[in-house]
Amino acid sequence: MRITEKIFNFNKGHYPKIPEGCKNANSTKAKNEYLLKLNELFPECDVGFLREKLCSVDQNHLQQVIDRLLTMDKSGDKGGYPRRVNQFIIEPWELVRSQSYRKAVRYRLYNDFPETWRSTIKAILAENNFDYRKSFEKLKDLTTNNWWNSIFSIFRRKLYKEMENPELLEEIQKLQYVKLEEQSKADHEIAKQVNFSEYTNNDQLITCGCCYGDFPFEDLTCCSEGHLFCKDCINHLVQEGLFGQGSLRGKQINCIEQAGCDGYFTDDQLKSTLLPDVFKNYLDSLVEHSLKQSNLSLVQCPFCNYCEVDDNDLFLTFKQFRIPKSSKSFILLASLPVAILPLFTSFESIFSIFTALNVVIILILPQIVWNVMGVYPLKAWVSELDNIVKRVKRRRRGNVFKCQNPECRKTSCLLCSRESKPFHKCYEREQDSLRLFVEKAMADAVKRTCPKCHISFTKADGCNKMTCRCGYVMCYLCRKDLRQESYAHFCDHFRPIPGQKCKKCNKCDLYKTEDEEKVIKEAATKARNEFLKSHPEARGVNLLENNVIGPVTNEDDNYYRETFEKAVEKVVDYLLP
Prior knowledge:
Layout: H1 2-10, H2 28-41, H3 47-55, H4 61-74, H5 99-112, H6 118-127, H7 132-142, H8 147-156, H9 166-201, E1 206-207, E2 214-215, E3 220-222, E4 228-230, H10 231-244, H11 267-273, H12 276-294, E5 298-300, E6 307-309, H13 327-344, H14 353-373, H15 379-397, E7 400-402, E8 411-413, H16 431-446, E9 448-449, E10 456-457, E11 465-467, E12 473-475, H17 516-534, H18 555-575
Antiparallel strand pairs: 1-2, 3-4, 5-6, 7-8, 9-10, 11-12
Helix pairs in contact: 2-3, 2-4, 6-7, 10-12, 13-14, 13-18, 15-18, 16-17
């Protein structure tokens, strides 16, 4: 009873809940559910950072992690947590991995790389969140195949029995599918070459009607009248018409036969002929042209061509006063005096219903007569009413626009036309995000991760024998476990020039390391280019600042005007359906 009273009275009925379908809040499935929710709340935060904070708590996961992130955000620099480029996106390898998957991946890599030390494999797995594909590629680049390792690998490694894990098997199948796709593309190129040679030997090549080159029939496309052209000519034609002169945007692609032809290229022919991105832009231009011809007021997604009809635009754009578009709008305008009238009449005994109707007739009837005579005294009123209606509609709908394009699905802000996210602020400057992103990339370029306690660290000075605070000892270069081998792992041959590569053995150097300054500089340049590619608006210095509004004048007039507009907004909000 005391616990129930505390939950309902002090916590207002809120308490941590186990995700649906999970039996334990600390299970892998539950933690992944928590990670997806944190991704929705902090879409710009680095996924690895979220995963690390989530795995460091064992109860009340969401509340503890959210409190920590908000505390970091408020203390010191804005956005005290590391950022990422692709917001709202979590790759499968970034999720929390189960113990069975980790063990299956480790044994699989033991057998895939029998010449590599197990401690090295563990360190690589820790750095890549135990993902098989990324660890496999890293080990493939790191492993040096030489005769010394090939001979002694059979003595220091036994084959491990691989564990069956559905998730790992699915990843392996995807890798095999990618290899088959690459092989299929290579076979297709060889088949094209063989086909071209057979056409050439049999003197069966067909001449293009544009460039007059000779091509096999498979490399040609035809218009609706049968004129043949090579695919390169059609691609150049459409690209120039879309991105160059723009003469083909929103138009049908007609035949380019020099003698004249009324034919055209169908969408199916263009789809098989044009490059995928060119064909997509062509279809987008057709949609854009059709929407412009419809003369509708639209709200468009800033990230794609998806748009919806703006239901805020109830009235025409007035070069001169006209009757509203629909009868509903006219009824709204005509009903406004009736709705405002009670604001100015405090006692029912002062004005009877008949008197109120007379007032309405006095207000509305002259306006209709003047409109017929060509005099428009309500032009300013209608314009103001139009703005008020838009504000009411916008407040009802909100400033968030959700794109329904399956390839986009982004949520944008209607005020700043940028992606909307939790705690969104319009025109927020991103210089801090750029700095944090680059700094994280620079740190990741030189950091190492202990495979025992999973603590990341860097070497500031000293030799390449690194000792973690948990007692684990590893080589800074190859990441091998040195708890037994110690300094015997490093080369002890004399070299006349310090730092020169040893010609007698392949052991790691005790002091020489990679050029960290060069590695950090390359990582920073790559991260900066990647960030600016995803955020082109960050290239300018003052592009994200809000416009400065000058001092307010005529405060009394503004006060009365705002009060009147607020009253009208309440009336319009009541009258609108």
